[in-house]
Amino acid sequence: MRANPADYELKSPGTLNGVLSLLAEAPGQWTPIAGGTEIMVQFGTGRMTQRQFVNIFGLPELTAISITPESIRIGAGVTYTAIRNHAEIGEALPLLAKAASWTGSLANQNRGTLGGNIVNGSPAADSPPALLVYEATVDLISVRGTRSIPYAGFHTGYKKSALAPDELVLAITILRPAAGLRQYLRKVGTRNAMAISKVALAGVATLDGETLRNPRVAIASVYHSPYRCLKTEALLADATVSPKLIAEARAALIAEIAPLDDIRSTARYRTQVSANLLEEFLLSLRSNAEESAS
Question: Model's pTM, two decimal places?
Answer without folding.
Answer: 0.92
